[in-house]
């Protein structure tokens, strides 16, 4: 029996909205700077993360409202979000490295029931995403404050991961995790907005996307 409430489920949509706003700003700013393959990775990854978070919040809402316990929505959250962060991070790294050609390969997922792989994917993707954007901020010149915001957002994401590994069915654990998640996504949105205001679209362009 999970200790979810309707209020808790609605609050769970807040970090999803914050990340969605940040993702839209980044997609608009980086579209002209990225080659098509890199942008495809980044866009697909951020959309994956948004969908995973929204469906997890929807699961909580359906459960708390007594409508149904649609467990597949809950079970898909971790792997979909992990792969999403990995793709988004790979897209940012591709932007920084600017290879002449990049052809992302798609492969059928291997049947795997453990969580360690997805933890690794999520941490690697988040690290690449936040570190890459922080590097762009520093390259703008005297933008260390923005880089610090990305670093704090990353720390909050790690904290959210740790809390979610505890007894996540308890209300107290959920509220604590949601608070950390809102703080992390709020910091991420603030960092992205400040990077946008600093003139990211005019700073890092690769010409016409390949």
Descriptive account of the structure:
It is a single chain. With 210 residues, the protein is an all-alpha fold. It has one domain. 74% of the residues lie in helices and 0% in strands. It has nine helices and no strands. The longest helix is centred in the N-terminal third of the chain and has 29 residues, at 36-64.
What are its keywords?
9 helices, single chain, 74% helix, mainly alpha, 210 residues
Poorly predicted residue ranges: 99-112, 205-210
Annotation, overall tally of beta strands: 0
If you average the pLDDT, what whole number results? 80
Kindly name the structural category: mainly alpha
Number of helices: 9
Oligomerization state: single chain
Using only CA atoms, what is the Rg? 17 Å
| SSE series | HHHHHHHHH
- Give the fraction of residues assigned to helices: over 70%
> What is the straight-line distance between the termini?
52 Å
